[in-house]
Structures are given as C-alpha cells and as structure tokens.
Predict the structure.
Amino acid sequence: MTNEQSAPQRLMFLFANAESTNPKKSKKHQRGTISPVMCVDKLPSELSTFDALVKEADSIAKQWNFVFIASLSGENGVAPTTDEAEPFLNKMANDIETGNGIGRYVIFDREENPIELEANG
C-alpha cells in the first residue's frame, strides 16, 4: 500500500485497549471505552508482517486489542521523521480518547480483522 504512494510515507500505529460496557450484547453492537496504550511510528521498510508487528507490540505491552493505523506523507522525496510524526501520534491518542475523528483511521484487532467503530456522544 504505502510503497505505491507517490510521496514517501511514515506509518503511525496506536495500540489501544477496548473494554465493553455491555458484554452480553451482540459483538456487532457492543458499547465500551477505548484507551490508548502505546504509539509507534515506522517506515514501511521497517515492517515485515502484521504478526511481527503484534509480537513487537506484545514485547512492550500486552494489554491492547485494537491497533489504529494512519500514514503521514513526506515531501520532496523524503519520508517524515519520527519527530515530525509525534504531533500526529498525539492527535491520534486524543482522537481515540475523545472519540472524535476515529473514522479517519484504519483499525484492526490482534488477528488482523478490520474493525469498524462508531463514536457516540
């Protein structure tokens, strides 16, 4: 995906823990809270597989069940740096804590299943 982009990319990952407040409801319509656990940014060349990403994340913290993913485009043929990605990672964490703008992220569970979330006020 990112290798096909015209501008070099930096991928941003936010690992989050989702807790259901109504576990007896159907999995499709659960309500709950999502809390950021940790963030990391990587160049596409630093990734091999989703399983490797999960193992790396688990080596740091295992209390996550969703990963939110976004990308940041570089300029003039140069990928963004980690320092340039930091404010965007902070925004991701804020978006997830508040439920604002979560539709802009690609979300997967630990098994690489896509997740669709809706924020309720």
